[in-house]
Design brief:
single chain
C-alpha cells in the first residue's frame, strides 16, 4: 500500500482537476450533460484511480489502475481538443491545460514502468 497523497502525479492531477472544473464553468448550459460532464468525469478519474490503485494490496494492482489513468488522461486531452475546435475554449487556456495533461501522462507512464 502506498500513500497516494505523497505522489507528485496525484498532487498535479488534483490541480488539473480543479483547473478543468474552473475552465468548464463558462461553457454553455447545453453542454452540461455532454462535453462538460465527460471532461469532469475524465479529469476526476485520474487522481481517483491513483488513490484507488495505491490502496490495493499489490504493485500489480496499482499498475493496472495506472494503466486506466493513462487512458483517462488521453481521453481528457481529446475532449479538450474537441472543446477548442467547438470554440468553447481559448487557445491559451487550452495550451496551458494540454501541457499539464502531457506532464501527467508522462508521470503516470514513468510510475507505471517503475513497477515492471
Amino acid at each position: 500500500m502506498h500513500n497516494f497523497k505523497e505522489l507528485k502525479v496525484w498532487q498535479k492531477s488534483i490541480d488539473l482537476t480543479t483547473q478543468i472544473y474552473s475552465a468548464l464553468s463558462c461553457f454553455p448550459s447545453d453542454e452540461k450533460y455532454g462535453l462538460v460532464s465527460q471532461m469532469k468525469r475524465a479529469a476526476v478519474s485520474i487522481p481517483s484511480n491513483i488513490a484507488e490503485g495505491c490502496g490495493r494490496k499489490s504493485n500489480k494492482e496499482l499498475k493496472y489502475f495506472l494503466s486506466i489513468n493513462l487512458g483517462s488522461a488521453f481521453e481528457l486531452e481529446t475532449q479538450l481538443i474537441v472543446a477548442h475546435r467547438l470554440n468553447l475554449m481559448e487557445q491559451t487556456k487550452m495550451n496551458d491545460i494540454e501541457l499539464k495533461i502531457s506532464e501527467i501522462q508522462k508521470m503516470i507512464f514513468s510510475l507505471e514502468r517503475s513497477f515492471i
